């Protein structure tokens, strides 16, 4: 931190603010880490103080405060413990998260929207800035696809294990006969590399299309063809952005997404634990799921990799993913994997 402060205090350091972006980002990340460790130490000191008081005056009010402080300490300890597991180079990065429904029309599209709500709520719980870079409405309900940017320290490290197929079992709200349905949706997560990514993309390998935005924002978003879709022809990777009214900004974001997906694709080729790349991806169907969300005939969320189970399905779908994500990180940490 001292070295960064020296860098920022050099004469003329702020003459080119764009060049300071990586430095400021690193400073912010280090500050967040220090705040986390300081918060844990403070919680431990407060716990010791309440424990000492409880030994002297073990009345109901003091014991209640001690129990509350113990909860605070456990929560901060769990967060610090997770931070020690983020050894992968890009775990600290922001995350790009994509959701796509599987076969099944409105059922799967509605399930994809439920996942969108779940991850948005989770991001908000973690204090991340959640931005919809692209959003495609479903035909009758739900969504056809969505791309989210999660901005916050360790966003990628926390969310990378969510990549895969998610299965939902429920009584369908779209079936007048009240039958049970199984729906699938895929989630892809890759690190947002900002401008640091070193992937060469040739102009002749790109096809760039512009179109009118169809996402939220009122009538103004449809007046100009500001939305941008970029196709990387050699790999078939497609990224699009319609979040901004400026075509230039949407193009820059879409290109960054293409580069990030190309980078992640290369990582998947190298790492044995990432055998699924975008050209050989499992079908979004039975047998390939990483997690099952059962609402009928019983209520349970089960992760098929770590065998973790959560009974409070409503809280989980409302974004309370910490326990499941922690269990998965402990699992992959114990097995020496990255995701």
From TrEMBL:
What SMART domains does UniProt report for this protein, alphabetically? PCRF
Q: Where is this region: Disordered?
A: 1-21
Q: Indicate the segments forming the Prokaryotic-type class I peptide chain release factors domain, all copies.
A: 212-228
Q: Could you list this entry's UniProt keywords, alphabetically sorted.
A: Cytoplasm, Methylation, Protein biosynthesis
What is the similarity comment for this entry? Belongs to the prokaryotic/mitochondrial release factor family.
GO MF, any single term: translation release factor activity, codon specific
What highest taxon heads this organism's lineage?
Bacteria
The N5-methylglutamine modification is found at 219
Protein role: Peptide chain release factor 2 directs the termination of translation in response to the peptide chain termination codons UGA and UAA.
Per UniProt, subcellular location reads as: Cytoplasm
Q: What is this protein called?
A: Peptide chain release factor 2
Kindly give the InterPro entries that the UniProt entry links to this protein. Answer: PCRF (IPR005139), Pep_chain_release_fac_I (IPR000352), Pep_chain_release_fac_I_sf (IPR045853), PrfB (IPR004374)
Gene that encodes it? prfB
Provide one Gene Ontology cellular component: cytoplasm
């Amino acid at each position: 931190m001292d070295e960064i402060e020296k860098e920022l205090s050099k004469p003329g350091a702020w003459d080119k603010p764009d060049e300071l972006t990586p430095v400021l980002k690193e400073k912010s990340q280090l500050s967040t880490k220090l705040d986390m460790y300081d918060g844990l130490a403070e919680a431990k000191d407060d716990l010791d103080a309440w424990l000492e008081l409880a030994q002297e005056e073990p009345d109901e009010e003091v014991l209640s405060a001690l129990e509350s402080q113990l909860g605070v300490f456990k929560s901060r300890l769990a967060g610090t413990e997770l931070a020690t597991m983020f050894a992968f180079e890009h775990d600290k990065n922001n995350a790009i998260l994509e959701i796509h429904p599987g076969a099944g029309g409105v059922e799967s599209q509605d399930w994809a929207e439920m996942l969108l709500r779940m991850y948005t709520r989770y991001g908000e719980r973690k204090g991340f800035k959640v931005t919809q870079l692209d959003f495609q409405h479903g035909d009758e309900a739900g969504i056809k696809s969505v791309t989210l940017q999660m901005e916050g320290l360790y966003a990628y490290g926390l969310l990378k294990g969510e990549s895969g197929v998610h299965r939902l079992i429920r009584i369908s709200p779209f079936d007048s006969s009240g039958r049970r349905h199984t729906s699938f949706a895929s989630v892809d997560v890759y690190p947002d590399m900002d401008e640091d990514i070193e992937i060469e993309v040739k102009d002749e390998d790109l096809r760039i299309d512009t179109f009118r935005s169809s996402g939220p924002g009122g009538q103004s978003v449809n007046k100009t063809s500001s939305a941008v879709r970029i196709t990387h022809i050699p790999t078939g990777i497609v990224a699009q952005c319609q979040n901004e009214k400026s075509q230039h900004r949407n193009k820059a974001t879409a290109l960054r997404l293409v580069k990030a997906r190309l980078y992640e694709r290369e990582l998947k080729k190298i790492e044995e634990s990432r055998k699924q790349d975008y050209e050989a991806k499992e079908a979004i169907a039975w047998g390939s799921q990483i997690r099952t969300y059962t609402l009928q005939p019983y209520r349970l969320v089960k992760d098929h990799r770590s065998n973790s189970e959560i009974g409070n399905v409503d809280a989980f779908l409302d974004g309370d993913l910490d326990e499941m994500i922690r269990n998965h990180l402990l699992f992959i940490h114990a097995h020496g994997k990255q995701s």
